[in-house]
Amino acid sequence: MPADLDEKTDRYGEMLADALQAAEIAVPPGTPAHDAASDCREMAVAYLDDGEQFRAADDPVNALASFSYGYGWLDCGVRLGLFTVPEETELFTV
Question: Is it true that domain 5-84 has CATH number 3.30.1490.20?
Protein backbone atom coordinates (compact mmCIF):
# COMPACT_ATOMS: atom_id res chain seq x y z
CA MET A 1 0.00 0.00 0.00
CA PRO A 2 1.54 3.35 -1.00
CA ALA A 3 2.15 5.95 1.68
CA ASP A 4 -0.29 8.83 1.87
CA LEU A 5 1.49 11.89 0.43
CA ASP A 6 0.04 14.36 2.94
CA GLU A 7 0.87 12.10 5.91
CA LYS A 8 4.40 11.51 4.67
CA THR A 9 4.94 15.22 4.01
CA ASP A 10 3.76 16.09 7.52
CA ARG A 11 5.95 13.36 9.03
CA TYR A 12 9.07 14.49 7.18
CA GLY A 13 8.45 18.14 8.08
CA GLU A 14 8.15 17.22 11.75
CA MET A 15 11.19 14.97 11.51
CA LEU A 16 13.32 17.77 10.04
CA ALA A 17 12.14 20.24 12.70
CA ASP A 18 12.93 17.71 15.45
CA ALA A 19 16.33 16.96 13.90
CA LEU A 20 17.21 20.66 13.85
CA GLN A 21 16.43 20.86 17.56
CA ALA A 22 18.42 17.73 18.38
CA ALA A 23 21.60 18.45 16.39
CA GLU A 24 24.24 20.53 18.16
CA ILE A 25 27.35 21.78 16.40
CA ALA A 26 30.21 19.64 17.70
CA VAL A 27 33.26 21.35 16.22
CA PRO A 28 35.12 24.38 17.55
CA PRO A 29 34.14 27.86 16.38
CA GLY A 30 36.61 29.53 14.04
CA THR A 31 37.50 26.29 12.25
CA PRO A 32 36.65 25.27 8.70
CA ALA A 33 34.65 22.36 10.13
CA HIS A 34 32.52 24.81 12.16
CA ASP A 35 31.90 26.81 9.01
CA ALA A 36 30.80 23.60 7.28
CA ALA A 37 28.49 22.72 10.18
CA SER A 38 26.97 26.20 10.10
CA ASP A 39 26.42 25.86 6.35
CA CYS A 40 24.73 22.47 6.82
CA ARG A 41 22.42 23.89 9.50
CA GLU A 42 21.65 26.95 7.38
CA MET A 43 20.73 24.76 4.40
CA ALA A 44 18.52 22.54 6.57
CA VAL A 45 16.69 25.58 7.97
CA ALA A 46 16.25 27.02 4.47
CA TYR A 47 14.80 23.74 3.18
CA LEU A 48 12.46 23.55 6.19
CA ASP A 49 11.23 27.06 5.43
CA ASP A 50 10.84 26.24 1.74
CA GLY A 51 8.93 23.07 2.58
CA GLU A 52 6.55 24.97 4.82
CA GLN A 53 5.92 27.49 2.05
CA PHE A 54 5.26 24.71 -0.46
CA ARG A 55 2.91 23.02 2.01
CA ALA A 56 1.03 26.30 2.56
CA ALA A 57 0.70 26.60 -1.25
CA ASP A 58 -0.85 23.10 -1.37
CA ASP A 59 2.20 21.64 -3.11
CA PRO A 60 3.00 18.53 -1.06
CA VAL A 61 5.39 17.03 -3.63
CA ASN A 62 7.80 19.96 -3.47
CA ALA A 63 7.26 20.28 0.29
CA LEU A 64 8.28 16.65 0.77
CA ALA A 65 11.31 17.12 -1.49
CA SER A 66 12.38 20.19 0.47
CA PHE A 67 12.02 18.45 3.83
CA SER A 68 13.98 15.47 2.51
CA TYR A 69 16.83 17.61 1.19
CA GLY A 70 17.02 19.53 4.46
CA TYR A 71 17.14 16.34 6.44
CA GLY A 72 19.87 15.02 4.17
CA TRP A 73 22.06 18.03 4.93
CA LEU A 74 21.73 17.44 8.67
CA ASP A 75 22.13 13.69 8.50
CA CYS A 76 25.30 14.08 6.45
CA GLY A 77 26.67 16.54 9.01
CA VAL A 78 25.98 14.06 11.79
CA ARG A 79 27.75 11.28 9.90
CA LEU A 80 30.76 13.55 9.32
CA GLY A 81 30.97 14.41 13.03
CA LEU A 82 29.99 18.05 12.58
CA PHE A 83 27.01 17.63 14.92
CA THR A 84 26.32 15.70 18.07
CA VAL A 85 22.92 14.18 18.69
CA PRO A 86 21.41 12.40 21.68
CA GLU A 87 22.32 8.70 21.67
CA GLU A 88 18.73 7.60 22.10
CA THR A 89 17.52 9.47 19.03
CA GLU A 90 16.23 7.56 16.04
CA LEU A 91 16.37 10.64 13.86
CA PHE A 92 19.79 9.97 12.34
CA THR A 93 21.73 7.08 10.83
CA VAL A 94 24.44 7.03 13.54
Answer: no
